[in-house]
Fold this sequence. Notes:
The radius of gyration is 32 Å and the shape is extended. α5 (262-297) crosses α10. By secondary structure, the chain is of the alpha+beta class. 41% of the residues lie in helices and 19% in strands. Strands 6, 7, 8, 9 and 10 form a five-stranded antiparallel beta sheet that branches. The chain has three domains: 2-110, Trigger factor ribosome-binding domain (Alpha-Beta Plaits), CATH 3.30.70.1050; 150-244 and 445-470, Chitinase A, domain 3 (Roll); 262-432, Trigger factor, C-terminal domain (Trigger factor, domain 2, Orthogonal Bundle). It has helices at 21-38, 51-82, 134-147, 250-254, 262-297, 304-322, 339-359, 365-376, 382-391, 393-413, 425-429; strands at residues 2-7, 12-19, 91-96, 103-110, 124-129, 150-153, 163-172, 175-188, 210-216, 230-244, 417-422. A hairpin with a 6-residue loop joins β3 and β4 (103-110).
Amino acid sequence: MQVTLETTSNLERKMRISVPSERVETQVDAKLKQAAGQANIKGFRPGKVPMREVKRRFGDGIRQEVSSELMQSSFSEAIVKEEVSPAGSPVIEDVTMEAGKDLEFTAIFEVFPEIELGDFGEVTVEKPAAEITEDDLDAMIEKLRDQRKGYAEVDRVSKADDRVNIDFEGFIDGEAFDGGKGDAADVVIGSGSMIPGFEDGLIDRSAGEEMDLELKFPEKYQSENLAGKEALFKVKVNKIEEQELPDLNELFFKQFGVEEGGMEAFRTEVRGNMGKELEAALKSKVKEQVFDGLIAITGVEIPKALVSNAIDQMRQEAVQQFGGGQNIDPSVLPVEMFETQAQKRVKLGLIVNAIIEKLELKTDDDKVKSVIEDMASSYEDPEQVVNYYYGNEQQLNQVQNMVLEEQVVDSVLEKAKVSEVEMPYEEAIKPNEPAAEDPAAEGPADKEPVAEAADGEADAPVGDEGEDSA
């Protein structure tokens, strides 16, 4: 086998490979003989089909199959021989595939870049520090009560925070529009699940009351055919319900696994969970600053193939997260939505791998075990969860990679400029805002008209009720 390698740019390589015809014909003949023994052709006894007939019927297809297999195997041999590491699958061009001639083809591919790491001392990190106060604990308990609130029907006019059950239908220029009708839809006043003005129009209403709401869709609206248009909504209020928060009693505590010990044990349990959340949030903020710092001090030319692969992966993730179980083709999501974040993801991956190689970091098995046991501790049967992770190679690899990333972060922090910044608990656990210029941070627009997604309430109106819904 002959191989020539040409460097066409910093990362692109062009490889010409020639496979001797003897090797090709040997494999073609072997497959032809195999086909002759298996062929079932009218007019011939099984296994007695003449070779000329087998070649006539199957020769071209078999040669195509053999050539494809040889191109894959010879490319693998060639990159080992030339000591190159492709960053993606090659593009195959200029294929010569004729009987009696050498199999020749050109493979064009990108290689992984050589990375020169910057000075970790130039990385600046503001390490957040926060404590959980009694006020923070009280606020969390109220939040937990709110998450488990119920609703009870009342005989009065509606007010903010009430849940109203309504029938409605929207019209533009006197014509009903798709997705503009809902029957027996629950709307929480003040939830922001409806277009501006809709929920305000439900205040001070009585059960059985009918009304017309003259509203205007926002200029920037996910459904372009509705954006900026004036609409009339005919609404009927079916019933009004007010919030009912659960009492802090034994029944409530049991929902969080606290079987005994009353309020004191419940507060201890909640504080413990808040502590875990706080620890994870603080680590995440530090990790993000370290990674941003590494990107800033390290110049990396990234292979287009890796970015393309990352975009495909992020498309899949977006469909899983926002697709609502629908069968959506990820390729319909525009590349521009993910390109910036994909480039950052690839660049960071290359830098982290370079650090692991340079510092010869190995996964800390004790730390992996500690992480798995910590995650398992919140389950009813921790041992079963631990066994699941160690019995599932993919899940175990994810934890190992996470621990290895933490080891990279720790290595950088040893040399970085680190200062401590005090902050309240609520600010500490709040995720950092995504960069405004990052289209991927916005996510795909998949919400229904009018209803902008209300958590378990009216996802609603213009959307999911009956045959008239969009």
